[in-house]
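Dear H.,

Thanks for agreeing to be a second pair of eyes. The structure we're designing against is below in token form, covering all 127 positions.
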């Protein structure tokens, strides 16, 4: 893990970037949490995704192992907005391929800080 580049696009080693959050260190802000969640999707880390999802909106299952699995190609963070001390949004575009076809996911994600940890609440898909 130490030599692999982080999937979030930081051009840093996974272990020094999102890997430390996957290992249990709390993400210091909503943007880094969002980046670590993208990396978790790339790596298939469903437990991490569920652990960083707000309990009021977390689905019972994410189905990450259900084929066909997307091939994640890259992440671009467009905006990170702190709304107040415990609420923030992150706008991003994630590119992926599914069954050989290219797609992009453009979302404005909502985050809330509970007990000192940032959690993903939900998102609004943009066209």
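And this is the sequence the design step returned. I haven't edited it by hand at all.
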């Amino acid at each position: 893990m130490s030599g692999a580049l982080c999937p979030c696009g930081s051009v840093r080693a996974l272990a020094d970037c999102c890997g430390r959050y996957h290992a249990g260190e709390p993400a210091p802000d909503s943007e880094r949490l969002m980046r670590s969640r993208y990396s978790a999707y790339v790596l298939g880390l469903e437990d991490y995704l569920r652990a960083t999802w707000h309990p009021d909106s977390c689905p019972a299952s994410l189905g990450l192992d259900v084929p066909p699995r997307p091939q994640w190609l890259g992440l671009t963070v467009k905006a990170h907005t702190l709304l107040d001390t415990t609420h923030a949004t992150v706008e991003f575009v994630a590119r992926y391929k599914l069954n050989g076809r290219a797609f992009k996911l453009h979302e404005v994600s909502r985050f809330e800080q509970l007990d000192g940890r940032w959690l993903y609440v939900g998102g609004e898909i943009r066209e």
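Two observations from my side: The longest strand covers residues 71-84. Residues 30-43 form the longest helix (14 residues).

Warmly,
E.
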